[in-house]
Design brief:
Distance between the termini: 22 Å
Bound molecules: nickel (II) ion
Helix content: 10-25%
Structural class: alpha+beta
Number of strands: 10
Radius of gyration: 14 Å
């Protein structure tokens, strides 16, 4: 297995500005301002505390990839993202181990257009893989 390194915890929020202010009250610093991911129809913002990076994700409209999830989970952490030196090899390796890709690798505007892919495990729920080098 390729070395996987934790990059961030994805956190679903209904209102990204209110959530960012609340994380700020807990001592989190803003890493990046809010970015619109037009492909996934979500707003994204990264914050950090004590070396932990949190990705706030909120639906930009009802066609968003997280619109269904937010109804189910409300405001909640929902994935851990792992950096990999070889996205395609890690994807193949995890798929062989029982993970199921739920989308195709695609560039993430909030992550300098590095490619990401989401997978499901029957035992862990959702994870994200992200290539560690810039495109
Ligand atoms: Ni993420």
């Amino acid at each position: 297995m390729d070395h996987l390194k934790i990059h961030h915890i994805g956190y679903l929020v209904k209102h990204i500005d209110k959530a960012a202010a609340e994380f700020g009250r807990l001592g989190y610093n803003t890493v990046s301002e809010t970015v619109l991911d037009d492909y996934r129809k979500i707003h994204i913002r990264f914050m950090e505390k004590d070396g932990y990076r949190v990705e706030l994700v909120s639906p930009a409209d009802s066609s968003s990839v997280v619109s269904g999830l937010i109804k189910k989970y409300k405001n909640s952490p929902y994935h851990i993202c792992y950096e990999t030196p070889d996205l395609d090899a890690s994807l193949a390796s995890l798929t062989a181990k029982g993970f199921t890709a739920i989308d195709a690798p695609a560039p993430a505007p909030a992550l300098q257009n590095r490619r990401v892919v989401f997978l499901m495990s029957p035992f862990l729920g959702m994870i994200e893989l992200m290539e560690d080098q810039l495109p």
